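Case study B.
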Amino acid sequence: MAQNSNLLRGTLDLLILKALTWKPLHGYGVSEWISSVTDGSLLMEEGTLYPALHRLQGKGWIESEWGLSENNRRAKYYRLTREGIRHLAVEADSWVRYTNVVARALALESPQP
Amino acid sequence: MTERPRRLFRLPTRREGLRDEVDEELRFHLEECAAKYERAGMSPAEARAEAERRFGDIERVRSDVEAMMTRRQKAMQQSDRIDDLRRDVAFAGRQILSNPGFSSVAVLTIAIAIGATTAIYSVVDGIMFRALPFADADELVMVWADYTRRDVVLPDKRREWLSWPNFSDFRGQVSAVESISAFSDWNPTLTGTGDAQRLSGGVFSHGMFSDVLGVEPALGRGFLPEEDLPGGPVAVILSDGFWRRAFAADVEILGQVIRLNDQPYTVVGIMPPSFAPPPFLGTDAWSLLQFDLSNGGGRGGAFLRAVGRLTDPSALELAQSQARQLGARLEEEYPLENIDTGFNVYPLQFDMVRQTRTALWVLLGAVGFVLLIACVNVANLLLARGATRHGELAVRVAMGAGRRRILAQLVTENLLLALTGGLLGLTLAFIGTNVLVRLAPDGTPLLEQVAVDGRILFFAALVTIVTGALFGVLPAVHASRAQPAVALREGGRGSGAGPSSRLRNTLVVGQVALALMLLVGAGLLVRSFQNLNRVDLGFNPENVLATQIQLSPVGYPDAATRLTFVRSLEAQLSAVPGIEFAGSITNLPLAGADGDTNFFVEGATPPRPGLEPSVWLRRITPGYLDAMGLQLVTGRAFLDSDDPDAPRVIIVNETLQRDYFDGHAVGKRLNVNNTANPVWREIVGVVRDIKNFGVRADSRNAMYLPFAQAPTSSMFTVVRTSVEPTSLVNVIRGEISKLDANIALADVQPMAELVTASLATDRFTTSLLGGFASVALLLAIVGLYGVVSYSVSTRLREMGVRIALGAETRQIRALVLRWALALAAAGIVIGGVGSVAVNRLMEGLLFGVGTTDAVTFGIVSAVMASAAVLASMIPAIRATRVDPIKVLKTD
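Model:
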């Protein structure tokens, strides 16, 4: 599957933010959630998740804190910030509108709608 | 530790810490992942391999993440630093504004120091140090005749004029001077192009422009050697400014003939606009001397000055010694004319600025003093202030502020103060330089070269700012070293004694001493200036107007026509209402010497030829004595009947009567000039001595001949008015034009203004030094106030105890006053000794007052002592208001 890397990055960012909507997760947790909801088609290399996490942190959309995992191991947990929530709402909305427009265009069978 | 608390407390993160964090996070992911695959049935090795495969390039991810974290960390630190700085600046601003008295004094002190230093130095640099605007200007020299061995009164015996033959020998025989040109004043009247106008110019022997100054006309050509030969073509070169003014920059003027003094001159060249002629060459037009030896230009007729160019800048001494040898040879060869005559060779710039030189050095010294005093003041202010903030600093140290943070805070505060002062000082420097240039006396050489000097501005700013930063930080260093507990227990009173208080005392004593020295210098100049203004000139310049008249040789070819003109003009002027008397003289007094004349007395042993006494000589019309207010002592004034047909008569001054006629001159006869065939003239009157050469110079032998018996073509007409003299300026010009419209109208100047102008340099120096001394006094008062007030604030407890024990208000006040006076007295003594040592340099500037004038020293010391009392007044009052109960309770 040939992926536009910008498109992919935007999609990945959006999904990371979505993953953190319900509760704070560690990196592995985020990767599991994305794999499960995308059938593993988006995150081809799980490692690329980590630069993305730090990028989002730099933008102030998420923040991190060390905590304990389900099996009592030290793990770094990420949580949405107030700004992250606002950003996700805006981006998700425009993403939906964008994909709808593109999908409608691709579904056309004659040059005029 | 997690990120949030670390941010909150601003704790540093080391690089290894970052790497560990990244490792741990990635390891966690891989292990969780591998565990999942094991649960799904893979062997541990397979599970691990699968996890790593799915993860991708671990190393790249690790380094990417690490780089991102480092970047974020750095950005945070930077924003922390910017926050700190912003906080420091804001805090400093609040501190400065919260204490406006202290702050404005400090800022003003710095501003004045920078402004005054820069302005004065810029002027001095422009005039004395910046090279003249000519190529290799350090090779240019001025050549003079040296009369120092002659027993005569002259304005400057080292700088007398040269005769053509002596100049000619110098040109031929002093090989260290590569080229030389003799010059003379030339102020021709231009006619034939609108109103007649008088030009300022010069005539010189060939080579002045091309060889000596190294300048060429921008249009046309330079002079040709044959144009300098008697009878050769007569050429003139114009300045760019005059060409634009008089001929509207018309190129066609080149090659045309213009009329100067009614003679035809061919315009051959126009100088470039950048050409700044030295002041002695005038500003408008130049021509060649065409010196004719057969025309009576003997070795004795000295009317030339000369500028030369050395073969090399280092050849000055060689030129001087060659000139000395030549002088000795000529003296031997021509004992008649050249007895006691030598040559002097001086660098041109040194020569041009000789009159303002001492004054400029004194001002430069004064400004250095002011800079020093200002720095001391800033230091003292900041030290005192720092000490009062001991408590505040101790609290901040106790609260955990690091030494670096406290230092940074104080440096910020002081830099802010210093920079504000510096900015203000910069403005003052520009304003001050312009004001100085405007105030400088007319004719101050090289004034056009003056510009604000960047180097000195930088230097002055650096000195004051470093002083500010240094002395502002000293208390901080002190405070951060101190045990906060101790400082706090002292209740923020700081430690009164100790090294910093001794330093303050020393500084303030030095400051008082410097200020006293400046005050003494200014006081001496003021006294000297008073003396100058009180000098009896011998005539009365009030209500007198004078104007120069130049008659053209064509319109007035002989004595009769000139005499007729002068008589009609004086008659016309006398008829003007408001004019009481009108008279004329060949050249005004105070204007310097114009060619001395020899004389000898009838019946006395004839002097050796060449050693006849010399005399200051003027020709006057009968109305002159009344017009100028020059009193007749005995005998009679000239009459209209003393005309060319009448017997030769003469009026002498009191000095001449005393020295040569034993007090009884009237009726005696003497001969003027013409040693070989004496023409005996009878002395008919004796007038008072006048200041021939200026207010400072001694009076000397003077004689007056009747203008009618040898009328000249150039003269000054003088009128005494009964009304405000300036109201008649245009009337006088009108009367002259009515008589002859071709006469160039010169300025009609009040005589009193000329007298004032002759004192312009003295006034300039006196007022400037006076200004500096006032500033210094003010700074010293501020300094004393600062130190005394601080010492009172540290001794409040002692004062309280004294009051509690029954000390009276008077006693407390006396205690503080004594303290201030002790400091001032030390400063006064040191400053007094310093003054005696330094003021000798001022000798040349003073008139009628010694450099150790007791009156000046007395007054100045009293002023300084009063200043000390004034400065301690407020602290003294504060000391008496101490409430003993309060002070004693606080501990």
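The interface with chain A takes residues 2-4, 21, 24-26, 28-29, 32-33, 54-58, 60-61, 64-65, 68-69, 71-72 of chain B (CB under 8 Å). The remaining cases will be described in the next quarterly update.
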